[in-house]
Amino acid sequence: MSTRSASRRQSNIGNYMDYSLLFIVIFLLGFGLVMVYSTSSYEANLHFNGDSAWYLKKQLGATILGVVVMMIVANIPYHFWERFAVLGYIVSVVLILLIIPFGHEANGAKRWLYIAGISLQPAEVAKLGMILFLASMICTMGKRIRTRKGFYTVLAVPVPIALMLWRITSNMSSAIIVMGIAVLMLFVACPDYKRFIILGLAGVAAVALIVFVIVKMSESNMEGMGFRFERVLAWLDPEAYASGKGFQTLQGLYAIGSGGIAGKGLGASMQKLGFIPEAQNDMIFSIICEELGLFGAIAIILMFIMLIWRFMIVANNAPDLFGALLVVGTLGHIAIQVILNIAVVTNTIPNTGISLPFISYGGTSVVFLLIEIGLVLSVAKGIRLKDL
């Protein structure tokens, strides 16, 4: 009798598969493909011999590749990747350094490598590598992370990569994301919240001081400023820089304002017709607002909130700390990137050049985001459920 009961209980235990998370990701990918075509068809038609679907084809290829890799990663036990944590950190550093001699420059920034005819952005590799490395490191340190030395050791790990992303690739937004991933993972692993409050207040004070100094310098010696702080000044007063750094921001705000509640209709945007440069990239959210209105913008934001909520469910029920930290790192990456993109488009923060996850055009970004989703699904499959 007891054997049959044990057998019945065993049969009622099964692996957990988060189909809700998977559905949200697939929806965002499909919506992203639609918006990439809508925003890029005019520019593609002008520059690629009348092929209005040029950007769509490239994004579709990257999306299909990403989905295949995601499913492969999802079916591999996530602890398998722990052995590659150190290698991931080293590869990230090497790829960023290779930008110096071999980097490809576009729109005034050298951020890409061409490997076997494929464009690769080392910043995306660095984000994934940082998640793996920090998850492994925090688990290895154990309770030592609660000491002052352990706390600041973990916090110092992403600093070299963040500095290289900022100085070598001129990619401040990716540097912020890498540091944000580290802070969030450390926040989850370390219960001493006073340190985070102090770090947060110090960060806010530092940013406020920098903005104050830039404004004072611009008032006293505008000619000597050059273009070093122009993005901050354009953020404070975009109309004063309408022909320069403030142009893209103003056009994005015009698009948002003209969309109204219901929008002009899919494909009916005016700002994508050359007014917003490369609208399919960082400024795609402004076209969403113009074509689908406030309703469409809120719907997409809600989808991202639901995605983050599913991450939290998986992290809270993960079999171990390593799995939970992988999910938290992915949550931090996507959440910070969404917040930064929408904040830039709405001129809440200075323009940093950051894409909207799963929706903006960018092959490297979508492939590595889907690899991270594969890790989350792998962690979810490790959760054991009982049918009570």
Describe this structure in words.
With 388 residues, this protein is mainly alpha-helical. Helix 5 packs parallel to helix 8, helix 7 runs antiparallel to helix 8 and helix 8 packs antiparallel against helix 13. The N terminus is likely disordered.
Fill in the keyword field for this structure.
5 strands; three-stranded antiparallel beta sheet; two-stranded antiparallel sheet; 14 helices; single chain; 388 residues; globular; mainly alpha; disordered N terminus
Task: Note the topology.
Blueprint: H1 2-11, E1 13-15, H2 19-47, H3 54-74, H4 85-102, E2 104-106, E3 109-115, E4 118-120, H5 122-141, H6 148-156, H7 159-167, H8 172-189, H9 193-220, H10 230-236, H11 247-259, H12 284-316, H13 321-345, H14 363-381, E5 384-386
Antiparallel strand pairs: 1-5, 2-3, 3-4
Helix pairs in contact: 2-3, 2-12, 3-14, 4-5, 5-8, 5-13, 7-8, 8-13, 11-12, 12-13, 13-14
Number of strands: 5
User: How much of the sequence is in beta strands?
Assistant: under 5%
Structural shape: globular
Distance between the termini: 19 Å
Helical amount: 55-70%
Main sheet: strands, sense, barrel: 3 strands, antiparallel
Radius of gyration, taken over Cα atoms and rounded to an integer in Å:
22 Å
In the sheet with the most strands, the strands line up as 2-3-4
Which ranges are low-confidence, i.e. pLDDT below 50, for 5 or more consecutive residues?
1-13
Class per helix and strand makeup = mainly alpha
Order of helices and strands: HEHHHEEEHHHHHHHHHHE
Q: What is the number of helical segments per DSSP (H or I, 4+ residues)?
A: 14
Instruction: Give the overall average pLDDT.
Output: 86
